[in-house]
Structures are given as structure tokens and as C-alpha cells.
Amino acid sequence: MRKFSNLTLAVVAAGVLASQAVAKDGFFVGAETGFVRSQLNTHVYNDPAKFGVQKGIEQIRKTDTKDSRIATGFSGGLKVGYDLGFNRMYLGFGYTSADDTVTVESTDGSYSYDIILRHKMLDVVVGYDFLASITNGLKGVVGGFAGVERFVHSEKVLGRTFKMSKTAPVLGLKAGLNFEIDGHNSLEFGLKYQYTFKMKLQEEGYDFRYDGYVGSYRANVDGTLHNVGAFLSYVYKF
User: C-alpha distances in angstroms, 216 versus 50, 71, 87, 160?
Assistant: First the structure.
């Protein structure tokens, strides 16, 4: 009986030591890819007094519209951080590219044209993840991150390309599962949401003609961005 008890204690101790070895602290690096649905909500407003029209300013109407643009695409990123076993902190760098084509028809249906939308985003964030053990080698992951983003939105209409860009703060949440291949390698997959705070976008200036007069203006555009998607990442722990 004593031998059996000693053997049982030895097995339990070995298991504890093994779990501690797997969960030990250490630096890590990772790479990530994913699918993204990107929605840009805009508020466009123009002041005719600032259009810079040479003549006939009173004939240009004021613009005040709200719209939503949706594009889909892929994302990728790199991160480096420190793993505390069930908590980790990291610095991440990400790039996202999404596009879509919208067909617009005239009110009478006599003609139509396409608008090609493109969203490009470059992010730098700091994040924190909490990992909860589910089974041996499998953990649930919930986390949050915050940082800054360089966002470029472009629309190609009838051969002309209009661009709006801005750097703005971002805030995001993620949830998923982490599968440990061994003490150094792991895979992770889940869902991620990222919100880009209100941006003062400004459309590139362009010339227009109205009733024989030529002028140019810049449209004031406020925008908020909502990105949601699925991700898959690989992490190597030193």
C-alpha cells in the first residue's frame, strides 16, 4: 500500500511539474491572418461658402448626408509580447485590405455605373489576453487591445479616384481558443471586433463644372469604422 501511495504521489507531482513547465513565463512572437468585414459610416457636409467657386456661389447647394460603405477582405499581422502562463501582454502590428463594388442606377433606370470601394488600414496596438484552461493543451482566450490606426478609404467613380485618409485611435475585443501543440508552439483561432473612433476625414479636392462655371472644393467627412471578422494565428514561445 505504501508503495502504491508513493507511486501515486510521484505521478501527481510529475503532472504538476509538467503543467508548470508548459505554463512557465516567457517571451513570444506570433503571426496572424484572417477575414474582415469592414463598415465605414460617414457624415458628409459641405459649406458652399468655402467651395472657392469663382462665380455663381449662390447656385451651389449645401450638402449634408449620412451613408454607410461595406467592404470585405483579409488581414494580417505580427505581434511580440510576454506570456505569464494564463495572462499575456503584447505589441501588435496589423494590416487590413478590403474592397467591394457597388452598382448605382439612375432614377429612371436608363443607365448605371460602378463605384469601387477600398479600405486600407495599418494598426499599431497594445493588447492583453486572459487564457483559461479547458482541457490539457486547450485554453479559452478573451482579450482586448487599443492603439492607433492609419485608415485610407478610396472610391473609384467613372474613372476618377477620390481618397480620404486619417490617423485615429482604435479599441478592440477578441475571443477564441488556443491549442498548445507543445511547450513552444501553439495555434489560436476565434473572432475579433475593432472600432475606430470618429475621424475627421477630408476628401481629395477635385474640379467640377456647374452652369458654365468651374470651381473646386474639399468635402468635410466624419467617419467611424467597424471591423469584425475571424482570425487564425500561430505563436512561438521562447
Answer: 10, 29, 54, 14
53 DSSP assignment: -
**Identity of the residue numbered 210:** Y
What is the CA 151 to chain-centroid distance, rounded?
A: 10
Calpha distance 70→58 (Å, rounded): 35
Specify whether the CB–CB gap between 52 and 216 falls below 8 A: yes
* Sequence-separated (6 or more) residues with CB below 8 Å from residue 15: none
Q: Which residues contact 46 (CB under 8 A, 6 or more apart)?
A: 62, 63, 64, 217, 219, 220
Q: Which three cell numbers stand for residue 179?
A: 491549442
**pTM of the shown model:** 0.74
**How many other CB atoms sit within 10 Å of the CB of residue 83?**
21
- pLDDT tens digits for 176-228? 999 999 989 999 999 999 999 988 776 545 554 444 545 555 567 788 999 99
Cβ neighbours of 216 (radius 10 Å): 11
